[in-house]
Structure formats: structure tokens, C-alpha cells
């Protein structure tokens, strides 16, 4: 759907789809993580695809599009091994810092930020060859909701390390390292983007998000961008896809 809306026209080279397939609903007994072995395989496949793309086009910055935020494990598995310290601007309606053993679903996308900064099973936290793949003080969490939260969401927010910068603090910080920008589509208000898995009211519209992220997209520290959680099955007329492609076009 995003390609039909013009996504490929925003980049010089479209490398197609990485072989990342997660279908299992089985949860690992020890960790609570759903589809653990498939998630590891998917992260490694994406890391390999990203390595190939960045090696073949070293002067280009990659744009990675995926079904959910678990793609960040593959991105940082490559970046950690190939680049070293890389920081993360994560723009998300949720902190993605759930303890998978307490999560209703056990999905990696509920907890990928926790895994990136070193909290979780070693098979995930060590995907980049060393732990953590991203250092907490080099992470800026932007756009997550902090008001009207249910007890589970409050508990997730409470698990965030104090070193992670949030909101305005994160937007204005100089992290001193190359930075990756990740956008979870559910950061947007569902009034303008209902085609997401976990919609939350209180988010920005497209114009507000562009204004927020333009300084990050223009930063000389930016090494790449990813976007996740767009649901084409919830976007029958394609208006959500068109809005997202327009958003990326304005940013990139």
C-alpha cells in the first residue's frame, strides 16, 4: 500500500522486502516473549539486508519500513556491529518498555526499547554482538502519552531508565553520536491516522509531527530513518498511506 502511494519514489533505490516472517503465537516459557526464535531470525535477516544496502550505497541514508517496532532490533543489530555507538530518537505513542512476562501479548514490539538498552533475554539484547545495542543516555523518547494512562501503561512508563531523555528534553539534546530516527505511526492522533494496532488519543496531527521532527530530519547526525505500525488492512481507501508518504516526503 505504501509503495502504491509513492513511497519508492522518495528513495533512490528500493531494495524490496527483507525475509522477515513472524507467525508464531507461542510464548517462550522463560522470558514471556512471543515468537522468540522467529523474532531473532527476523532481526538477523533485517540486519543482513541493511548491511548489504548500506555497503552498496555508502553515501545514502536508509529508510526502513516494517510492520511493527521490533524492526529496531534488526536495525541496531547492524548499526552496533558496523558503526558502534548510535543513538535513537524513538517517536512513539508508547514507551515500548513492557516487561514481556507481564505483557498481555508478549510481542517484541511491546518491549523493543527495553531490549535495545539491555533489559531482557540475552538472545535479543546481544543481537549486535555487545550489550546494550543502544545506550540509555543516547535515547530520546518523543511523543509518548503521559496522561490518562491505565495501570499497565503507568507501570510501563515507570520502568523507563532515568537516563532516557523524554519529550522536549529529547528534542533539544545533542547526543554526540550518529542518530537513528524511528517513527511509530501510532504517535499520530487516531483522528488523522486510525490505521494502527494500538490507537491512542492525544497525539499530533501530520503538520504538528512534521514541525516536531524537521530539526531531527535535518540534523547532520542522522544516519537513517524507520517507520512502523501502519496497518493497510485498516486503511481501505489508502488515505493513511498517502498521508504517511506525504509526511516522509516533507521530512526527507
From TrEMBL:
InterPro entries reported for this sequence: Ureohydrolase, Ureohydrolase_dom_sf
Keyword Zinc: no
Keyword terms of this UniProt record: Hydrolase, Manganese, Metal-binding
Species for this entry: Paractinoplanes aksuensis
Domain of life assignment: Bacteria
Lineage, highest ranks first: Bacteria, Bacillati, Actinomycetota, Actinomycetes, Micromonosporales
Family that this chain belongs to: Belongs to the arginase family.
PANTHER family (alphabetical): ARGINASE
Protein name stated in the entry: Arginase family protein
Amino acid at each position: 500500500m505504501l509503495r502504491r502511494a509513492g513511497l519508492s519514489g522518495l528513495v533512490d533505490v528500493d531494495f524490496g522486502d527483507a525475509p522477515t516472517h513472524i507467525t508464531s503465537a507461542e510464548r517462550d516459557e522463560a522470558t514471556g516473549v512471543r515468537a522468540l526464535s522467529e523474532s531473532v531470525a527476523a532481526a538477523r535477516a533485517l540486519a543482513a539486508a541493511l548491511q548489504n544496502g548500506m555497503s552498496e550505497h555508502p553515501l545514502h541514508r536508509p529508510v526502513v519500513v516494517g510492520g511493527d517496532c521490533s524492526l529496531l532490533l534488526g536495525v541496531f543489530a547492524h548499526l552496533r556491529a558496523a558503526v558502534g555507538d548510535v543513538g535513537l530518537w524513538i517517536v512513539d505513542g508508547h514507551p515500548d518498555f513492557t516487561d514481556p512476562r507481564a505483557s498481555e501479548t508478549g510481542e517484541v514490539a511491546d518491549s523493543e526499547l527495553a531490549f535495545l538498552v539491555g533489559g531482557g533475554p540475552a538472545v535479543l539484547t546481544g543481537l549486535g554482538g555487545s550489550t546494550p545495542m543502544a545506550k540509555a543516555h543516547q535515547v530520546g523518547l518523543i511523543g509518548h502519552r503521559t496522561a490518562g494512562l491505565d495501570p499497565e501503561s503507568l507501570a510501563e512508563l515507570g520502568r523507563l531508565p532515568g537516563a532516557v531523555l523524554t519529550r522536549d528534553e529529547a528534542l533539544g539534546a545533542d547526543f554526540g553520536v550518529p542518530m537513528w530516527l524511528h517513527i511509530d505511526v501510532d504517535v499520530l492522533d487516531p483522528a488523522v491516522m486510525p490505521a494502527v494496532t494500538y490507537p491512542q488519543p492525544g497525539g499530533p496531527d501530520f503538520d504538528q509531527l512534521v514541525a516536531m521532527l524537521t530539526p531531527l530530519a535535518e540534523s547532520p547526525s542522522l544516519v537513517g530513518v524507520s517507520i512502523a505500525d501502519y496497518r493497510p488492512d485498516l486503511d481501505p481507501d489508502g488515505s493513511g498511506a498517502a498521508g504517511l508518504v506525504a509526511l516522509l516526503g516533507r521530512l526527507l
